[in-house]
Amino acid sequence: MLNGMVVAGTATYSSEGERFDGLKQVNFVYGSNGSGKTTISRALASPPAHPSCRFEWRGGQNLEPLVYNSDFTAGNFAEATTPGIFTLGQDSVEARERIAELKTDIDAMKTAISRLQFTRSGEDNNGGKIGDRKSLRQAFEETCWAFKVTHDEHFVDAFEGVRSNKVKFCDRILAENEKNTETLHPIETLKERAATVFDKSAETIASLPSIEFVDLITVESAPVLGAKIVGSTDIDIGGLIERLGASDWVKKGLDYLPSEDGPCPFCQQDVPPGLVAELNAYFDDTYMAQIAEIDRLIVRYRDTTFAVTARLDELLEHGCTFLDAGLLRTEIERLAERLRSNSLLLEGKRAEPSAPVSLESVVKITGAIAAMIERANEKIAAHNAMVKNLDAERTRLKSQIWNSLVHEGSTSIALYLQQKNDLDAAVSGLDNGIARKSQQLREARNELADLESQITSVEPTVTKINDTLASFGFTNFRLATVLGDEGLYRCVRDDGSDVGRTLSEGEKGFVTFLYFYSSIRGSTTQTGMNRDRLIVLDDPVSSFDSDVLFVVSAMIRSLIDEACAGNGQVKQVVVLTHNIYFHKEVSFDHKRARDAKQTFWVVRKIDGVSTIKGFDRNPIRSSYELLWDEVRSSTPNMATIPNTLRRILENYFTIFGGVDRSEIVELFDDDEKLICASLFSWINAGSHSIMDDLSVATDEGLAARYLKVFEKIFTKTNHEAHYRMMFDRSG
Fold it and tell me: Which residue has the higher pLDDT, 237 or 557?
């Protein structure tokens, strides 16, 4: 059965759509012309043509939709002939009996399958045993998660990978329950071991890189630093320069001497001939080579100092726990000071090459630093050797922790597994039952289709439609099968000629409805006439005369009764109309209202967009029913209640029943007769005059007394059933 639908993105419906929820066996939809009713019927007739609409079938059981609307009428009178409707013929009594048996069996099988599916999955595929199993699992996940919350602080590492997911944590508990064979230890013992084994410092650590100080030490011991670098003594002036110790001064002054014929920049006398040449010869290649060596040592010492300092800074930033950072920083500062001092000495040597220099050795400082690095690496090696054993210890500890949790929750785990096994068995049994019943259903349907194809005929439908037409005075045409093709109909006159386009709208509408009504019990093919169906009727009485309207309404009510009973092919009915009288004619049934087997809807078009609204009770009611609303009210309107009572009594007794009010008064005894008479006087006075004086005396107590007499009028006239029906009516 159709449980609900969303009409969206088609015709005058918005992309979000309008929704029908909680549809029942009978569903009435009222709306004016152009409000969007036919769009609903078209969507039901052809869901694939309306992909933006959605349909929800209860229990997954789709009904075959048969839709009567303007498209059906146009489609079945657009051609000269109409497809015949096959129904069961008279060829085999035994076959017909067997078909009836099969239909009963098929209905029983479908009911059984629906019950099994409901027991398995519930109404929405989330209930039943499947839902019980899901709820059981969710409850067990919460139980397992409680273990995690309790022990998470101590066993973070053991829970790695499942700490943020209840489902995974629960799966891990179940997996450990199956395979964990570790020795069981007290939980407190495991906590103590975890504090050590899971300590982050127990991870393997890379060794510290060594730092090379060789270049510094090499520069310090370079012979050229202690040498007295002077020019060549073989030059005549060389002896003088050496005796004066002026080699460095002469070298600097040489840069200021002019050419041979210029004045001396110091004494402003002419430079003696050959002096510049002799001075240049004094500073020979040996001298220049030694100066170049000093330059190279300076660059080498500077670059090595920069590299060593950078490596030492990195070592401090490394933060190795096995290094004494304070002691290391002290040695680094000593080394930096020593390097700065030596750099100044080197620069002095470059400025005065003839003066020997001796650099302060860094051997002790660098040796201390190297020893600290070596000791740290020894500790790191020992630590890493320990860590290699810890890997196995951690694995074992994790397994022991999980085993402890399994032991702690053993009762809950055992109960869960037992209940889950029971539900698994139940679901498996239901699946097997559904499969077995489904196979039986397929076999029964195949047999039914085979029997139908053997004994079906279109003639019974022709006969039935013609009889109905004749009984309502449609005698100037009838249906006949097409000669040479017994599977088609045509409309003909009594002489057998085609009616052509001479049928009135009323005649065309009536024969089309009869054709549709016959198709409910049959099929345009030789099989499928016994399928369960959803009947949709969109304004079926638009062009009918009043006498035909009554019979069509009666036929529709029979379909509604069949849907409510639930024992025929018609399982659900949807009636859409703009005709208020027809709506009242087919919708009112006091028993259906009590059984809650019907729903009411109103379709409106607002600003060009169709909207759908559901109602708890029939929103389309007669004036007579509206009068009873005030009678049923717990606080009747004092100004209008007299007129309301008068109109009810006049309509029911005087107009429809032909009973005079004096006859009604005579039915009462003594005092009640006076009360009844006064009631008629009161309601006439209250409804035909302003009652300025009487309004003062018309209080709730007086109204209550007269309402009681109003009820007794129906009792005394033997119309109490009508009073009860109208007074108790809720829809």
Answer: 557
